[in-house]
Amino acid sequence: MANGEILQRRCATHQPSTGDRARMAEFERAAMGAIPEAARDITIPVVFIHVVDGASGRISPQRRTDQIKVLNDAYQRQGIRFSFKENETRVVDNRDFFNMGTARRASVSARRRTRRSLPRPV
Fold first, then answer.
1. Which is higher by pLDDT, 57 or 13?
2. What 3-state class would DSSP assign to 40?
3. Selection from 73, 80, 78 nearest residue 42 by Cα
4. Rounded to two decimals, what is the model's pTM?
5. Domain that holds residue 46
6. Are 46 and 68 in contact (CB under 8 A)?
C-alpha cells in the first residue's frame, strides 16, 4: 500500500453492461440536440466524500485528480467541466458504514445522515 491507497477498488458505482452503454450513448446523442449551445458550457463542482475504516479505503489526492480528468475527458464534447478543491475533500471514518455495502436500506440512511452532518465547503 503506497500513499495510503488500497489495492482493491471499493466503489458503489454500478458497472454498466454493453447494452447500458449503448442506450446511454443514444440518449446522449438525442439530448445534445435538445440543449441550446449556450447551456452546454457549465462547470459542476465536485466534493469527494470518502468513507473509510481507519487506513482501509483511503484514496490519494492523485486518484481524485485523475478521476476529475476522466470526467472532464468524457464530458468535454458536451461543454461540461468538473472541478474540485482538494481542501474540500471529506473523510468519514466509520467501520460499520464502510463495511455495510450499498444495497441495504441502512446504507441509504447512513449516506443521508453523513451528508447532513458534514460541514459545508466554503
1. 57
2. helix
3. 80
4. 0.56
5. 37-117
6. yes
